[in-house]
Amino acid sequence: MASVAAPREATGARFSQLSPPDGVTVVTWFAILLYVVPTDRRIEALGGAGAPAYLLALAALLWWAWHHLQKPAHGGRQQVQWVRVAAFLFVGACLASYAKAAVTALPAADISVADLGLVRVAALVGILLVANDAITSEERFMVLIRRLTLFAGLYATLGLVQFYTGISIVDTWQFPGLTASGTTGIGARAGFVRSAATATHPLEYAVVLTMMLPFCLTVAIRDRSRSSFLRWFPVAVITLSTVLSVTRSALLAMAVVYLVLLPSWPPAVRRAAGAILTLGAVVVYVAVPGMAGTIVGMFTNSDSSVTSRTESYDDAMQFFVVSPFVGRGFGTFLPSYRILDNQYLVSAVEIGVVGLLALLGVVVSATAVAYFSSRIDAAEPMKAMGLALVASMLAGSMNFALFDEFAFPQACGTVFMVAGLCGAYANIRRNAGKPVTSGLP
């Protein structure tokens, strides 16, 4: 019996030494599920709420809430968590909008979508709160950033394969327990394939890439802990994929990223970046005939997408004036009414002025805390990550004005994840030099 008990005791000791998952582990798995599983795959019985990444985010919210209920109250003055406060205000605005929808004679389809919308809000805020509160050290923060850059590089590579082969590839992927709705796939514009990787739409794919690009650039330039290939591979494939995406929004967002980051780079790096971008433009011009003219034409010629956006304001105003303060319900402005291609406009209709201001509060608070925290002295690459977060948030929030981002799970999931990372970065820089604990603080 002693010989049997000994291995059991040894196994129990090994398990007892395992640390519980921290915020980095949870956010890592969220990113894997968000970017690897195609957006049209979900648990059929749960309908629109069955996306694996969002189910994990809901579990993360429960974990966060359980921890804070169990945590003893601390005396003394507590530091204001601006990103968390903004997230709570956003939730409150969405709840007020949901209450308004419940007492309004909306169509049955709109009411069911309002229920789903509240679940989506809970998931988005859940991953934001866990990222904000449960990433407590520079080392773990950088581990997550390096993982995200690797994921982004692989995500962009899949898009390049789709571009050059014209084959979706992800249509053949099978995930046990998940069913496909068939809403993903590659597109086309001006005779060119528009890659989507695992995203719902090529535009969503390109937006996610531009939000990941600042991290990839910062790791490539500032982080010497990895080989040159692992550092620069994501930068190369993301930049090329963004150019080949045939997407105005992504090109504008990429320009914003470089404008934010360029002044912080050493002169030699700026000159090298300019030379590489020029060389890359020449390579694209030669290797992909017609692409350069198509890109120039997107900014010099008017098309149906631009006209649709400018003509949406009158239609949106008719819905907005019915309930200008709290809106008609998050997620209830269905595409059957009108595709506005402007998330700020959609939010004004769905959650009113109060909700729109709360959404802007999330964006502004996340950007502000990351920027001001980046001015605190720190070793590289951590210090440079502040501006990378600022550039990522600006890229994502700028695209709110160019398409209805909440309708695309990867895009809005990335925005809220990065907003949480902004809060985590501010907390880490503010508490630099103090002892930290694993898990939620």
Give a quick summary of the entry.
Helices cover 67% and strands 2% of the residues. With 441 residues, the protein is an all-alpha fold.
Features:
441 residues, two-stranded antiparallel ribbon, two-stranded antiparallel sheet
Describe the structure.
- This protein has 441 residues and is an all-alpha fold.
- The chain is 67% helix and 2% strand.
- It contains 16 helices and four strands.
- The chain has helices at 2-17, 23-36, 52-70, 82-102, 108-134, 138-165, 202-222, 228-243, 248-261, 267-287, 291-300, 304-310, 312-320, 343-374, 382-400, 409-430, and strands at 41-42, 179-180, 187-189, 192-194.
- The protein has a two-stranded antiparallel sheet with strand order 1-2. A two-stranded antiparallel sheet has the order 3-4.
- β3 and β4 form a beta hairpin.
- α3 (52-70) crosses α5 (108-134).
Topology, element by element:
Blueprint: H1 2-17, H2 23-36, E1 41-42, H3 52-70, H4 82-102, H5 108-134, H6 138-165, E2 179-180, E3 187-189, E4 192-194, H7 202-222, H8 228-243, H9 248-261, H10 267-287, H11 291-300, H12 304-310, H13 312-320, H14 343-374, H15 382-400, H16 409-430
Antiparallel strand pairs: 1-2, 3-4
Helix pairs in contact: 2-3, 2-5, 2-6, 2-16, 3-5, 4-5, 4-14, 5-16, 6-7, 6-8, 7-8, 7-9, 7-15, 7-16, 9-15, 13-14, 14-15, 14-16, 15-16
Please summarize the sheet with the most strands: 2 strands, antiparallel
Beta content comes to under 5%
Structural class: mainly alpha
Cα distance spanning the termini: 43 Å
Give the helices and strands as they follow along the chain.
HHEHHHHEEEHHHHHHHHHH
Shape: globular
Helix content: 55-70%
Query: How many individual β-strands?
Result: 4
Tally of individual helices:
16
Sheet with the most strands: spatial strand order: 1-2
Poorly predicted runs are: 11-18
| Rg value | 23 Å
Give the overall pLDDT as a whole number.
Answer: 86
